[in-house]
Amino acid sequence: MIKIGHKKRYENIKKEYKKKEQKINFISQYDETSIVIETTYNNAFVYNNNEIYEVTLDKKFKSIINKTIYPGDKVVLKDNKIVDIVKRRNTLFRFKSDSTKLNNINTKQIIATNIDLAIIVVAVKEPLLHPKFIDRYIVLLEASDIPYIICFNKCDLLTEKEQSIIDLYNKLGYKCLKTSIKNKDSIEELKDLINNKQVIFVGHSGVGKSSLTNAIVNNKDIKINSIGSKSNKGRHTTIKAKYYKWNKNSSIIDTPGIRSLDLKNYNVYEIKKYFKEFSLYNDMCKYQDCLHYEEPLEYCKIKQMVGLNITKERYDSYCKIIEEILSK
Ligand SMILES: Nc1nc2c(ncn2[C@@H]2O[C@H](COP(=O)(O)OP(=O)(O)OP(=O)(O)O)[C@@H](O)[C@H]2O)c(=O)[nH]1
Ligand SMILES: [Mg+2]
Ligand SMILES: [Zn+2]
To answer: Strand, helix or coil at 254?
Structure first.
């Protein structure tokens, strides 16, 4: 695979906008309503009154504001430069291990900002449905205090096995949606749910985040790719988070698929709060700080409920996260 350098990538993006004959204007007054669409190394594209502007992120900007900008950011522009960032309502970030740093330190990677609702997109098949991955996203979003729903896409391929997984999450009280791009199932329902919101699509590669974005935004330039036949895994078609506006007050940030979600940096005692079905029993263990992990069965109410009101799969999923945090 050829890696495109920053400069080349920027040239490509510029061409892409030119091709669409969208105006790339010069802005000369202060304006508070610009929203960041996409960023490159030294530049950013922003929306302002339904037009696209290209702005520079020069060194001066970096030293004055000392912040990086992300899709979804509201920015203040002057003379084609970003001079300020409006205070963010929230940021969606994840920890990523950085092997270039000593000790493989985990760095915080912001994906996007000002999110009203996150859509955890999974495919019922192709790639394989991994409920543990849903649980990890739930932890991340609960910890970030960002509302979310689960979108089970590719429901044209649905079988009983996956339906039972959907039933479980429904029963637990999570808002679930069954979509299919192929059959156009629940696309209107999805539109209703995300109307008047700034939403973000997150999930594994190849699950259909860009396909769903395209079904709503109707933008032919959104890249969608087929599943790699050998690995049956997505191909990481989307390479950068990007903001799309689809009506006056509604927008979608489409993101690149991720392989895994590292939760090592979370507090080990925090995780149990994010498994809904534990809430009734969390305080019923012998010790208040029970981790529901290596404590003896007779002391732990959660362990006693496994196979009853807590499924073995969800409990295993919880233990996997705890194990990961404790092993850091
Ligand atoms: N059968 C079926 N295929 C779908 C559906 N939605 C998307 N696909 C296919 O799944 C493949 C991957 O779709 P993308 O939209 O590129 O997936 P993505 O989540 O954006 O992937 P990344 O950008 O790599 O993260 C494409 O071949 C789509 O045509 C669906 O509802 N049913
Ligand atoms: Mg994509
Ligand atoms: Zn316990």
So the answer is: strand
Q: For the chain, how many structural domains are there in total?
A: 3
Structural domain of 70: 6-85
Pocket test for ligand 1, best of 222, 224, 232, 252 (most atoms within 8 A of CB): 224
Same domain, 132 and 176: yes
CA of 148 to the centre of ligand 3 (A): 27
Same domain, 100 and 219: yes
Same domain, 243 and 287: no
In the reported structure, the alpha carbon of residue 322 is separated from the centroid of ligand 3 by a whole-number distance in angstroms of: 13
Q: Give the CA radius of gyration of the chain.
A: 21
Tokens for 97, please give them: 């291990």
93 to 3, 44, 228, 252: CA distances (angstroms): 25, 20, 28, 17
Which of ligand 1's atoms lies nearest the C-alpha of 207?
19
Atom 26 (ligand 1) nearest CA: 226
Domain boundary among 254, 283, 313: 254
In a domain, 108, yes or no: yes
Q: Nearest to residue 38, comparing CAs of 265, 238, 291, 327?
A: 238
Per-residue pLDDT of the chain (328 residues; tens, 9 = 90+): 334 455 666 677 667 666 554 444 455 555 557 899 998 877 889 988 888 888 877 666 655 555 688 999 998 887 777 877 888 899 999 887 765 555 556 788 899 999 999 999 999 999 999 999 999 999 999 999 999 999 999 999 999 999 999 999 999 999 999 999 999 999 999 999 999 999 999 999 999 999 999 999 987 777 787 544 444 455 778 889 999 999 989 999 999 999 889 999 999 999 999 999 999 999 999 999 999 999 999 999 999 999 999 999 999 999 999 999 999 7
102 with 241, same domain: the answer is yes
216 and 146 assigned to the same domain: yes
Output DSSP code: residue 309: T
